[in-house]
Amino acid sequence: MIWGVLQFPGSCDERDALRACEIHGDGARLVWHESRDLDGVDGVVVPGGFSYGDYLRAGAIARFSPAMEAVAEAAAGGAPVIGICNGFQVLCEAGLLPGALLRNVELRFRCHQVELVEEGSGQRLSIPAKHGEGRYYAPEEMLDQLEANGQVAYRYADGHNSNGSVRDIAGVTNERGNVLGLMPHPEHAVDPLTGSTDGLRVFERMSRGALANQRLTKAPRG
Amino acid sequence: MTVGTPKYRELGLTDSEYELIVEKLGREPNDVELAMFSLLWSEHCAYKHSRKLLSKLPTEGKRVVMGPGENAGAVDVGSGYAVAFKVESHNHPSAVEPFQGAATGVGGIMRDVFAIGARPIALLDSLRFGELDSVRSRHLLDGAVRGIGHYGNSIGVATVGGEIYFEEPYEHNCLVNAMCIGFAKIEDMVRAAAAGPGNSIVLMGASTGRDGIGGASVLASAELGEGDDAKRPTVQIGDPFEESKLLECCLELLEKGLLVSLQDLGAAGLTSSAGEMASAGGVGIDIDVAKVPLREADMEPFEIMVSESQERMLAVVEPARVDEVRAICEKWQTGSATIGTVTEGGEIRILRGEEVVGEMPVEALVDGCPLYDLEPAAPEGWIYGNRETLAPGASAKDELLALLSAPSIASKRWAFEQYDSIVGSRTVRRPEQADAAVLQLPESGNAIAVSIDGNGRRVACDPYSGTIDAVLECAQNLACVGAEPLGLTNCLNFGNPEKPTGAWQLDRAISGLAEACRALGVPVVGGNVSLYNEGPDGPIYPTPVVAMVGELPDPAQVAGDAFVREGDAIGLIGPFEPNLAGSELAKQRGELKMGLPAPDVAAVAKACHTVRDAIRAGRLASAHDVSDGGLACALAESAIGGGIGCRVDLQHLRERGCSPEEALFGEGPGGFVVSGERATLEELGATLLGEVGGDEIEIAAGDRSLTVSLADAERAWRSLPAQAERDI
Hints:
The complex is a heterodimer. Chain A has helices at 14-24, 66-76, 86-93, 140-149, 200-211, and strands at 2-7, 27-32, 43-46, 81-84, 100-102, 110-118, 124-131, 135-137, 152-156, 169-173, 179-182. By secondary structure, chain A is an alpha/beta fold. The model of chain A is unreliable at 214-222 (pLDDT under 50). Chain B has 27 helices and 28 strands. The two termini of chain B are 36 Å apart. Classes of the chains: A alpha/beta, B alpha+beta.
């Protein structure tokens, strides 16, 4: 499994994502935002940070980059795509994921370890979150639909939903399940020295999905 | 400006300084030259009241890669890598506009670090405000914390530590000191000296506007007073996105070997960066202000030369490589313009197109400012106020709870959770997990620890001993995570050095700093001085902030500051002589006065070795230095952090002549609270105090014995958010 990690001006966690992909997978490389070249890449991470300074609205500018056009094509082809934090915001802005991220209820950036519950398995994961605009929001009917479709991937455990996300939602997928967005940072939970290795489970989940369908793991040439 | 006052005085120059400028030029300076001289001859740039004293500091050491005089100091961490670090003040801008003041303080210190070719990997901050019952202090705290978070979080550099104190003397003059740590391959590092006449001067990054004009002379070198709002236009505005692009761009340019030298634009903008580059390289420089990209078309040459617009860097580039440099700037969507050339001879010439609008010898501009001797005199007694906040006759339990909830001692989680402390994947110990931040360096196969400390109240009581105590606390914090100090940097925040008391505080503090560094064998690799920190009510507490970087071989061995296991023994290591002088308890009782006991540096150094070796060998479950609030607060912090109580008896200290309250709340250097196997603690020579366990903090201290439930202690210690967020 080779991952491509997008790099926008203002990305912050792209090197962390690269490192996590290297720990978990067979390798990873950075993909410059102006490039449509996903050659040799099996899956994509849209990393955290403040792409284009988050000016206008978080993720609103990055979604128009050539790299994101390539990611949309790859996603349509079934390749796994993980959007983390700002990457989640970008994927929502790009329409690859449902819903939107609003400012935290407390109106402050907050960085802390949170407990997530993996939907379905009930597995608890300890993963850090760090954001000022991470309050997941979608209209009620859409939320019902997401839950019915099994698109809610992670929820904050009791007492850990500090940003005010609706229905404690921390991460969602597209209908097909190959595109995942989440606010907490699994790439910062891959090394026991820095606190936890629970983030690896998130990468594993996505690569399992990809490997289950080899036909779709190669992103189309852009 | 007042009619009749000479312009140079308005710009902060004295009559004799002006005469010296006229003498060096052989004529009266024009406006461009006067503006440039006034800035480079300000205290902020010329260190004219501190440079002579700073020469006392030891600066040499085997591991020093870059010392004072460069944009940042750097120490060798092995395998061909270096760690660069520097701390700098942004006090006066933050007192006027805390959000932007603090944000641009962070931005500025990062540029210092990447200017030498090091990638910023961590930030720390040392902040001082007035008491939190003042609405102004709450406003400044909130703004500064948001500003630090805004800049550091957005640029993706982890804020891994820091400290905040609240004391009345900072009410009108808060302190915002920002520190940046960088990591570099030694072979990729660059110095700031311009070289090679004929080479191009390239200005990179943001365009130049009117923000921050006169910041260095008007703001940084005069006391704050009435009408500070009128100074708001002199506070710079930060744009972390611009800096993020500029940072990546500069590091790529250096990695590709395209730059001869690099310098950031900080205080005094183009004037100081061009002047200092020319001075360091022994060359001249021509700058054409008509080629500087501007935000406002009608800017005067002097405004362009002194503008403190943020996110700009100046590079010397061989002419053949300018196109390649500009292409990389375009890739990163950051501006670049060739604005001048390196020349032979020692003149700095300012041109507007063909017209010469200023011409000065570099030597006169950069190194010509007279250095002054201070006229120190010790004050008669305690010159600061005293305010009794603790009810007379309070029980020891109430005293402990009052100390734990004192904003200077209480958990700073409220602040540090507003900072990204983990980006970069290096942070092994986050804030409040251990006494020092620990960052892993997989590239060199080891780790560093960093701590920043400086208790101004203690320094006010005795500038010499108090400064030594600050250095010792820093060293102790490193020892708690098993790190050996490699180098020290500092930011000396003081009042007016032209007043006898201010001069005395500065003189004594620098002597203490020199003495402590020499005794510990730690070189001073850089520093910053911020003087004239006074408000209408007088000077701030003299506040030398010291920061140390240490090395440790294996981050996996690092213990935390919290108790870990029920049944572990608790011990005290080190030559701890608790004393109420300068303590938080003395403050709350309104009993502050001059005088501190003299520390025994050699004995503390020995205890640091013991703790460091024990941590490295994995023999201790926890280690925490005894600091503000004394032994009782240190024990409570370890208990709260671990969620386990403790039962201790301070009989041993009492046998050595301490009163019960000195044993509980007395402060001073040299004490470590450790926990682990009883036999191990005995082998290490620790005084056994008691045992970890239960859900109460139980301390026997004669007639001041106390028992506090862990929940009550934690509630007090976690009370900062409620105190900070009142009315905001």
